Amino acid sequence: MSHIVCIVEGDGEVKAVPLLLRRIAEARGVFDLNVSPPIRVHRHRFLQREEEFHRHVRLAAAKAGDGMVLVLLDADDDCPAELAAAIETRAREVAGPVRLAVVLANREYEAWFLAGVASLAGKRGLPETLQAPVAAEAIRNAKGWLGERMASRGYHPVSDQPALSAMLDIDLACAHSRSFRKFVKECERALAE
Questions:
Q1: Interior CA angle at 104 toward 89 and 111, to 5°?
Q2: Burial annotation 16-54 (CB, 10 A radius, 16+ → b, else e)
Q3: In sequence order, which residues have a C-beta less than 8 Å from that of residue 102 and are 6 or more positions away?
Q4: pLDDT (tens digit, 9 = 90+) per residue, 69-95?
Q5: CA distances (Å), 56 to each of 106, 115, 135, in order?
Q6: E strand or H helix at 72, and its extent?
């Protein structure tokens, strides 16, 4: 049985990320993926305060055992590849022998919903005739983009993020989001080892 311990930054991601990981696993025929409740961090403090960074990574590594630690943060305006590499280098210094993956959603987690938005049309207050943006990961405020289209109710990360993660077409999102492909690839790596 594969085991993943996640470090995430948003309240919505605490529920959404395990759900999404299990969906990816089940789509690959793995039905016993063990995902521990994620460790929630504040991005700025996690990245800027060395002691806090070490404490969370060590806790995740201890919980993971022979499983994998997956750090998932929003890139915001940083380059996802460069920041992920820097975080992974720092985390490897304190994580010990545990398997480790770092994924940064390009801009923010919700950009993955924009990448697969056609699969979400007509759901959670989104219109049936939802037009996908040309470059989902180029939009700076994906939460705002979703909220504008959920005009009757707005976008609420804590409730909408898990619900949309449960309905997102994984293959469609992979086709339109490089950072989501990286997330799926790291999940597959955890399942294979």
A1: 175
A2: bbbbbbbbbbeeeebeebebeebbebeeeebbeeeeebe
A3: 70, 71, 84, 85, 87, 88, 91
A4: 999 999 999 999 999 999 999 999 999
A5: 22, 30, 33
A6: strand 68-74
Q: H or E element: which one contains 163?
A: helix 157-167
Provide the sign of the torsion angle of the four alpha carbons 69, 73, 91, 57, taken in this order: negative
Over residues 95-99, the mean pLDDT reads 93
Per-residue model confidence (pLDDT) at position 30: 93
pLDDT tens-digit readout, 35-71: 999 999 999 999 999 999 999 999 999 999 999 999 9
Question: Minimal CA–CA distance to 190: which of 14, 19, 28?
Answer: 28
Amino acid at 6: C
